[in-house]
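A student in our group prepared the protein record below, which I am reviewing. This is what I was given:
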Amino acid sequence: MARMNFKLYSPEVMARHAEMLGNRVKKNFKTLSRTFFKDNVEAFRLYNLDIPEIRAVVDWYAGHVVLGEYVREQTDDESYLNQLSASVANALSIPLENVHVRRRTTRPVEGDRYGRLARTNERIEVAEGDLKFLVNLDDYLDTGLFSDHRVTRGIIRDLVKGKRFLNLFAYTGSFSVYAAKGGAKAITTVDMSRRYIDWAKDNMELNGLQTACLQDWSSTEVREYLDRASIMGNKWDVIFLDPPSYSTREGMEPFDILYDHRSLIESTLAVLERGGVLYFSTNHQRFEPDLEGLLGAVCTEVTALTLPIDYTGRTPHRLFQLVKNK
């Protein structure tokens, strides 16, 4: 089939899209901010691909906005993103310099989570209820806090009192902070990036929880960590597992969530205490679970219970609860 050739949007279309986005963001902010500000939540999604013609996401971070546009041939022009940014800033009555832009692709690119876009090293604090987190709005594709898992973090917090918690592919450790606040007996935080482990420690200290319980930090590849933990007989009562969609880092076995999730989950179940709970999450939009017949575990999809109000209409992740019964 011949490849379709698209022309850039005309100035009139770009201006119309900018106006439409500004109007929608203003409307959504008016509705959502009432709830979130009352609950002291300063990080939430304002626009989630709402309008088919405008393929973008807009997130609020304590007076700043991150605008991520999924670039297509029709929009592959700097002026398009500039117009969207100006319209969003005007709609929210914030300075244009408080709009931080991203150019995204519909398919994940190796290194997205760990690669750098800039080197400002500037972080700001955002509140999420009675906790605070550091976010970086310029240097990476992601900011350091995934707002779509806000409800899931609360589930973990309510579950871990007096228990051992393992946070795998921990990123900047928000789940570990929630676990500490929830009274976990011991917390192990694992991510292969030393930078993110350090960031996770900063988040823990920001909340004064660095001595709340026994805490172990490991910048290790997760599959290697699980193999060693299994050999040593280490066990945890609650585990959160949130792997990337795929990874092909040098010197390591490639990982593809579509084909490798079952073996990863089996390795994780090996270190889960009997009666313990594993939560497995993925944001791959075409994910098909292969979770039937996992030995010694009962699996239930609980995605619907974890979708926050700012993500209505689209499912940002899927979440599965596995309870070990053998």
Summary: Residues 124-324 form a domain with the Rossmann fold fold (CATH 3.40.50.150). Confidence is low (pLDDT under 50) at residues 109-114.
